């Protein structure tokens, strides 16, 4: 295995410009929406309810507009100052409140080649780990390129989130505000005191989590590392089985959060589906990578073509070996 420092803000390869048509969100290749559209067409051909499928999986539903303004008005982040003394390096960032360093690791060759990017992050205030929504709106089927979301948020480092907008279940708390309270699965909670914990959504509520100090929650999963061990059975877990969605199993591009300690975490992106560059990993192997990075717990986020890591607005990872990102509904980012 080779692990080395690199210029994280220079993509590993140069490819043609995305030739997808202009619109609210530019995307590359087959997107989740295009796959869904194919499924809706099949429904129409078989007499299914294409109108229902369109309303559920394609039509944008804005529940909360201008989220940033509402968060500012709520005062939840009052006293959390983003420093003005931050300095980027070729592999990270340092300020009076934050240190982060990205390493690229690679193993194997040909069909066994694997590449991943790990950002070790330490912050002085847990509220510097934040989330941002596509188009700055909360709702279903609202998407935007991660780099555009990150630029608007002023993100130092960003990864894709849980793609909350693709489903209508899960507990969604962002910056201390509850947006959805539909418990369904194993979630991840970032607390304002620096703790990060995997929890059972069905055993609590959004209000109770906020009372306990929740800052952000993510709803995807599963946990791939618990108390320093990879759990049994995670290779059988499914998150979504609805129309147009794929299994989360098998060797895939991955995004994950690993926890080393309070205010000390790893943001991990594994590239995949690109023979000779990176094959991707299964969930047990993902947990093993986080364990090797010094984490005691770890949680799987949305993956596939959605997986991405950005430093100072530029892609670090190359999720499908194409040098392009895919639109999603949210990012998790380091503010400064």
TrEMBL record:
Organism (species):
Brachybacterium phenoliresistens
Note the InterPro entries from the entry.
NAGPA (IPR018711), TAT_signal (IPR006311)
What is this protein identified as?
Answer: Exopolysaccharide biosynthesis protein
UniProt keyword annotation of Transmembrane present: yes
Keyword hit for Transcription:
no
- The Basic and acidic residues compositionally biased stretches are 1-10
Residue ranges of the region described as Disordered: 1-30
Keyword terms: Membrane, Transmembrane, Transmembrane helix
Q: Which residues cross the membrane?
A: 34-54
Where does the record place the Phosphodiester glycosidase domain?
154-334
- Give the lineage: Bacteria, Bacillati, Actinomycetota, Actinomycetes, Micrococcales
């Amino acid at each position: 295995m080779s692990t080395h420092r690199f210029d994280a803000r220079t993509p590993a390869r140069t490819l043609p410009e995305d030739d997808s048509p202009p619109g609210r969100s530019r995307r590359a290749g087959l997107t989740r929406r295009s796959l869904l559209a194919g499924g809706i067409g099949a429904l129409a051909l078989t007499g299914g309810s294409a109108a229902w499928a369109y309303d559920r999986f394609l039509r944008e539903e804005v529940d909360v507009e201008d989220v940033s303004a509402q968060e500012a008005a709520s005062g939840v982040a009052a006293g959390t100052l983003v420093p003005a003394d931050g300095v980027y390096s070729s592999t990270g960032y340092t300020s009076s409140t934050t240190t982060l360093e990205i390493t690229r690791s690679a193993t194997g060759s040909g069909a066994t080649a694997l590449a991943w990017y790990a950002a070790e992050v330490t912050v002085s205030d847990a509220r510097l780990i934040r989330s941002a929504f596509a188009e700055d709106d909360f709702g279903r089927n609202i998407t935007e390129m991660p780099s555009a979301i990150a630029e608007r948020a002023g993100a130092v480092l960003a990864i894709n989130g849980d793609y909350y907008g693709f489903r209508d279940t899960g507990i969604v708390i962002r910056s201390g505000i509850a947006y959805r309270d539909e418990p369904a699965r194993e979630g991840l909670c970032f607390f304002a005191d620096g703790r990060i914990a995997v929890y059972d959504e069905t055993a609590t509520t959004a209000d109770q989590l906020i009372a306990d100090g929740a800052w952000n929650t993510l709803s995807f999963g599963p946990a791939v590392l618990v108390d320093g061990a990879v759990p049994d059975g995670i290779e059988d877990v499914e998150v979504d089985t609805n129309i147009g969605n794929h299994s989360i199993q098998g060797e895939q591009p991955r995004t994950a959060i690993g926890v080393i300690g309070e205010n000390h975490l790893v943001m991990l992106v594994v590239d995949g589906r690109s023979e000779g560059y990176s094959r991707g990993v299964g969930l047990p192997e993902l947990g093993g990578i986080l364990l090797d990075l010094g984490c005691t717990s770890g949680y799987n986020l949305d993956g596939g073509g959605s997986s991405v890591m950005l430093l100072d607005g530029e892609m670090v990872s190359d999720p499908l070996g194409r040098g392009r990102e895919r639109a999603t509904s949210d990012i998790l980012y380091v503010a400064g």
